[in-house]
Structures are given as structure tokens and as C-alpha cells.
Amino acid sequence: MANPLQFIREARAELGKVVWPSRKDTIRVTIAVIVLSLAVAMFLGAVDYGLTKLFEWVVNNR
Q: What is the pLDDT of residues 4-56, one digit of tens each?
């Protein structure tokens, strides 16, 4: 990395080759990520709740 200006020129050239997603694709993927995140959060919350109740039952029935 001897020449920072050369690096910047090459980086800009590479960014010009990037195929950016359309607005529609970006919105679709963002919604999918949000829905999947909520589904995982609900699943993990249910597992946590179930394990907590199981642990409480085991401790109270010793």
C-alpha cells in the first residue's frame, strides 16, 4: 500500500462494478429479515419460558 491515492482510485473503480439491488429487492429482503428475526425471537422466548418453568418445577418438587 505504497500509494494511498492509487488505492482510492482502484476502490472507486471496483465500486463502479457493483450491481446494487433495486429498491424493491431491498425492501423485500429487509421485510424477510425482520420476519425471520421475530420468528426466532418468539421461538427462543418460548423455549426460555418452557425451560424456566421446567426448572422451577424440578426445584420445587425436590
A: 899 999 999 999 999 999 999 999 999 999 999 999 999 999 999 999 999 99
Start-to-end CA distance of the chain, whole Å, equals: 67
Q: Which residue has the cell 425492501?
A: 27
**Considering Cα of 19, then 23, then 25, then 29, what sign does the dihedral take?**
positive
- Break the chain into its structural domains and give their ranges: 20-62
Q: Do 35 and 41 meet the contact criterion of CB atoms below 8 Å apart?
A: no
Distances (CA, A) of 38 to 9, 35, 43, 50: 42, 5, 9, 18
For the beta carbon of residue 32, count every other beta carbon within 10 angstroms.
10
Looking at residue 62, its pLDDT comes to 78
